Amino acid sequence: MLAVHFGAGNIGRGFIGSLLSQSGYEVMFVDINDEVVRLLKEKQEYRVIIADENRQEQLIRNVSAVNSQTEREKLIDYITKAHLITTAVGPHILPAIATILAEGLQKRITINKTPLHIIACENMIGGSDVLKSHVFAKISETDKPLFETYYGFLNCAVDRIVPNQKNDDPLSVVVEPFFEWVIEKQNIIGDIPPIQGAHFVDDLKPYIERKLFTVNTGHAIASYLGYYKKWKTIQEAMNDGEIRSDVEKALHESGAVLVKKYGWNENEHQSYIQKIIQRFLNPSISDEVVRVARSPIRKLGANDRLVGPATQYYDLFGQVPLGLVKGIAALLLFDYENDDEAVALQKTIQETGVEGALYQYSQLEKDHPLVIAIKDQWQHLK
Ligand SMILES: NC(=O)C1=CN([C@@H]2O[C@H](COP(=O)(O)OP(=O)(O)OC[C@H]3O[C@@H](n4cnc5c(N)ncnc54)[C@H](O)[C@@H]3O)[C@@H](O)[C@H]2O)C=CC1
Ligand SMILES: O=P(O)(O)OC[C@H]1O[C@](O)(CO)[C@@H](O)[C@@H]1O
């Protein structure tokens, strides 16, 4: 079985590629990083190191790689033969990979009429639907029904903290012990070969919202407040009592939304929150705040980890969630100069104010009570 996986980065090697290899797939990574591609081709294996006191190592075998910029024909050929396609490139890269993916899928339909599943493993709601829409924008009207018949785009939620790597061996990846890969069954065509450790569900929404509005909400707030208080790592930030209590406050707010929407047991959700906080504190991992804070414009999105739960909280309870508001205000102060989105965001704030930025990136009306509270908090922190 062949899996073609776009993105041989932290999550690609440290999570998706390793589970696929352990499930018996030959994993063909696709990347534009020449050095990683060269090393994967040469070594055909790499190590995953579990970040806990035992530092157990897993040898991930039966892998190789292809460069999507310089080896297009080879990649198209792999797509025609693949039994599964996955991605972990980042939401902003999905449009870029859609062109070659569409080309490969078009060729495949002429020579291989077996169903194929495509799973975008990105931190976003409906990632595979988004990838599908980019692919469908590249194909003819006549191909669309064929694509619907043979290609199942499955949405999923992926959860594993994989920090930026600083290892002597450039292919090895240090990962946290915990992982969760939840895949929605809805668009499966026929059967899908088993994937070790993945969990298939009928309705992904509660799972992706629980993950995005807890793990990613808490992580984002720790990163933006950590940056504001000049901490370098998430672990340092979470050991700052004030930040930890701000994170907990925001997670109780997003948790209140989830518990009300899905009728979950409140105590069980509180223990889920506490487990997440322990994961952030993992002393065996050193995770830079600027990694977790990356792409603040994406993270300001109306349905993303901060504004998503904040607007839902306001709509459900008629009150402004002050913990989430503080996190959003801290995001608006994230001015890290090596992050293009942080630079663009600061420019937008200078030109149009906090209200303009929240209107442009979060679709919040200028007189929305959340906007007023975020601006107050932003002025207070500034
Ligand atoms: N690192 C983590 O802990 C987690 C990350 N995610 C999600 O996984 C995705 C990837 O994140 P990371 O692995 O952390 O990022 P990363 O930056 O480590 O990996 C992304 C990889 O994609 C490659 N890439 C960029 N453009 C490409 C293109 N056009 N074609 C093929 N490859 C391309 C890059 O060279 C890089 O190797 C993101 O959506 C992220 O939100 C989800 C859960 C956990
Ligand atoms: O990958 P993103 O969406 O930029 O955000 C970083 C977040 O994703 C993770 O990499 C994994 O869920 C977390 O470490 C962090 O919450």
Automatic annotation (TrEMBL):
Domain Mannitol dehydrogenase N-terminal, chain residue ranges per copy: 2-195
Gene Ontology BP terms: mannitol catabolic process
InterPro entries recorded: 6-PGluconate_DH-like_C_sf (IPR008927), 6PGD_dom2 (IPR013328), Mannitol_1_phos_5_DH (IPR023028), Mannitol_DH (IPR000669), Mannitol_DH_C (IPR013118), Mannitol_DH_CS (IPR023027), Mannitol_DH_N (IPR013131), NAD(P)-bd_dom_sf (IPR036291)
Class of this enzyme: oxidoreductase
UniProt binding sites for NAD(+): A3, V4, H5, F6, G7, A8, G9, N10, I11, G12, R13, G14
One Gene Ontology term, aspect cellular component: cytosol
Similarity section: Belongs to the mannitol dehydrogenase family.
Protein name (database record): Mannitol-1-phosphate 5-dehydrogenase
Gene from which this protein is expressed: mtlD
